[in-house]
Design brief:
about 500 residues, alpha/beta, Rossmann fold, 21 helices
Amino acid sequence: MVAIAYTVAFEGVEGRLVEAQCSVAAGLPAFAIVGLPDKAVSEARERVRSAFGALSIAMPSKKITVNLSPADLPKEGSHFDLPIALSVLAALDMLPAESLASVVSLGELALDGRVAPVLGALPAAMTAAEDGRSLICPASCGAEAAWVGAVPVFAANHLRQIIDHLSERTPLQPARPGQISPPDATNNLRDVKGQERAKRAIEIAAAGRHHLLMIGPPGAGKSMLAARLPSVLPPLTPAEALETSMIHSLAGLLKEGGIPRHRPYRDPHHTASTAAIVGGGRGAKPGEISLAHHGVLFLDEFPEFSRQVLDTLRQPIETGEVVVARANAHIRYPCRFLLIAAANPCRCGHLADPERACARAPSCAGDYLGKTSGPLMDRFDLRIEVPNVGLEELDMPATGEDSADIAARILSARSRQASRFEQLAPSAGLLCNADTPPQLLEQIAKPDQDGRDLIHSAARKLGLTARGYHRILRTARTIADLADSENVRSNHIAEAISYRIPFIAGG
């Protein structure tokens, strides 16, 4: 007899159903696991053997073979321990085989039989729901997995509890979803003194998910502005929260099973590798751009990132997903993020101050910002200079708008965009103006005659590419939405163009 227990293998944020097939046959005593297991899966036999010993379950002196099917799919991670143990118990007639037919399980076994937490409980619950099965997982993962809500989730601390549950001696109670994670203490945009143009650019970027590049001397407030951007972003919708949390579940970032409704904010260091930014490494884990899905990715000291890292951002920015290529698989992760980049005007940072600028000014500015390729620079809808704030402004009390007021205006603009997309392209899944395809852009951002003349003149003088032309229209559409204007007018076009004027050094 072959006993079967079900579990999942992860391909990006998607889970694939895997059968743990166990056969106990006559022969020399052995315990083999086949089906492309990695080192952690191969070591499961020792953890299972020890856990059985802790429960006074004797392994028979027979040949035990566990096949993880489909056999050509790589199996990675310690979460295969529990399904392997359950399939062995069913093959030994210590569990009713039919009790495993409607269950997906995952969990790491400790040597004393405890069930340790693992990554990926939320996407595993999604896979179980799609297949119409319940989920058994570690106790610490139950609150996270229960957010799916479509199927019962049973969470246990010990293998003994799971055996009693499947044998119907002591059924487990379904787990309940965790609390909604509160946002971290957010800073208020009102705290930033001066920098009114930069605040306006932040508002436009947040309203339409337009990528923003800030260039200015050290201490001008670029990082301060970026850190306050989350305070004006609207909360995640339920669908966005679930999609984002699935990625964070694979990365082990969900706290106590809570699902966040605030948008993620990631700010990796400029020494981060390509795998850390776009994903990859051992197990092809999600990178920073995927962890920032539906949120903000802030890259401070932008030119200090390696050229290879920066150039790998170009395609994900356009497509909203990244493909991590491996010899035996291609893993896809969503990564529709808002990119905020900050840079000094040159390596010393004091290009505009003749008394403090280095001896190579102004040529050093071109060398420094020239590290950023033209195609990547073309993908920034908004480019602004952030000058130093005068001492007079620092001594005065803050007079800018509160983040709550700006957030209300941004939420209204985003609601207007969502309603428009629902009418014109209900099946496209569009959410923000930055995602608008060119064919639809011609309908929703058609400027008046003065605006058309203005953008055509700017396109000739600035040498705009087709991408740059469309990005100006998208930005103008967002500016019009913030102004509660149904049509795009010449003043909206003019403001959008002002954010695309090349820097002297940046091009």
